[in-house]
UniProtKB/TrEMBL annotation:
Domain annotation 4Fe-4S ferredoxin-type: ranges: 2-30, 31-60
Protein name per its UniProtKB record: Putative PAS/PAC sensor protein
Alphabetized Pfam families for the sequence: Fe_hyd_lg_C, Fer4_10, FeS, PAS_8
UniProt cross-references to Gene3D superfamilies, sorted A to Z: 3.30.70.20, 3.40.50.1780, Electron transport complex subunit B, putative Fe-S cluster, Fe-only Hydrogenase (Larger Subunit), Chain L, domain 3, PAS domain
Species this chain originates from: Alkaliphilus metalliredigens (strain QYMF)
Lineage, opening ranks: Bacteria, Bacillati, Bacillota, Clostridia, Peptostreptococcales
Keyword vocabulary terms for this entry: 4Fe-4S, Iron, Iron-sulfur, Metal-binding
Amino acid sequence: MKFINFSKEKCKNCYKCIRVCSPKAISIYDDRAEILEDRCISCGECYVICDQNALYIKDKVHEVKRAIDSNKKVVASLSPSFPGAFSMKATGQMVKALKILGFDIVEEASIGGDMVVMAYEEHLQASQKDNLIATSCPSNNYLIETYYPELRKYMIPIVSPMIAHGKYLKQKYGHDIHVVFIGPCIAKKVEAYERQHQGVVDSVLTFVELEQWFGEAGINLEELSLEEFDGKGRRQGQQIPCKPNVSKEQKTKYERVIVTGISRSKEILESLSKKELSGIFLESASCQGGCIDGTGMPKDATNYYVRRKRVKDYIKETSKTVLFEDIKLKESISLSRIISDKRVEQKKHSQEEIEKVLKSMWKYKKEDELNCDACGYRTCREKAQSVLQGRSQSNRCLPFMRAKAESLKNVIFDHSPNAIFMVGYDLRVKEFNPSSERVFQIKTNQIKGERVQKIIPEDIFEKVLETKVNTVGKKIEYPQYGVILIANIIYLKEENILMAIMTDVTAAEKNKAELARVKENTLNVAQDVINKQMRVAQEIASLLGETTAETKVTLTKLKDIVMGERGEV
């Protein structure tokens, strides 16, 4: 069951979670992060490392509140590492706070720790195996079951202190109670929901969730009165990893080895798998430093060593006396657990397939495989494997993306038809592209490091430096070079430079001048034509006028003759 989820809106694809995830149980594909349940060991390291709060734990506080509001008796099983998570004057203030929230009974989970320690001691006395591995840390159990299943034979088939105490509480107060484990471990949420443990611990809260609940309820621990635990274990059960007492004979057979952190745990498991070690009793915790610095601890500024001192001081105050009221009750509880084989079968890809992916990431030679771990994978070949398995994309290789970006940048800079050059705040040229060499008729090695005034006046740059305002689209003519340029001077504050991008519009300007001359000539020709037409029209009109007058005279005479002839008849 998945207890950590991603918020796509908050995820910035920074790859921190993949880098910290030892089993590589996170896939980021098409900018979408996802936890792969079959590979996840529920360590919670991804949740801790995420500064964007893109990973969140499924809230179980509402579930506990619902149980408190019902008629059920609600019992808290509190991890003995709580003094490291909260600042208080006395540990009894924590009991009081939990009672205020509505818990009917508050017991320390170290009672379950005592039960587990005693079970370990019996197992150590009887075991004939080459090595033994404690099973109190669920995350490390998942690590072995999933990635080192061949070592399951060494795992002691005993439940964790949380499960042992849950069973004890159900036997003591009745199976209808609601047991809530409160501790520094995210993996406990998964453990409680394992099929073999269902119904033992009903809810699991981390100290992070408890801290938030205290805030909502307005509870300040340091202001509360004290109240005693309803049940508390021995000092031996409070120590995690557990510290079983073994006989002198057993001490010579098994050396107690404590390892914290997943990387160190994997290292010793590798050695056990290769049979390089024997005669050890291994107690490992997935969190670096153990439960005191668990992934369910509040994300505050409290130093690890401060946490550790608080817990150590608390344990020193604890009486060594066994507080079990009923030893027979303890002895009647089965602490056995099933060790499962959860191995993940991964398809093995050929060298040819891997080489093909590497080439797609611009890794053509061995020297190109930087193994920088920026993508989260230890080697470039592991990264290629993840690509082939559909868990990542080849374009998420940082050196690849950088090389590609720089390549495109260089192509643009070197082949742009525009003159592009960079000038520092001291007005000395830093970069000069080939088009700039052509326009300003000077080589890069002759101008680089020199003041820009060596080629053009500095006033346009000085104005941008003074006003911090970019100059855009300014037309400037440089007769000494026979060019007319459209200048853009960009102020780059972060880089402490001015970038000049100048477009040569000389040809266009010449074309414009030629077009204006053609227009003027055309207008002159048109005017001449008009003038000539006017003269012709006037001449025609003049001729037409004379002809009309003569015609009028002739016709009048003809009329008179005709009229005269009529009179005579």
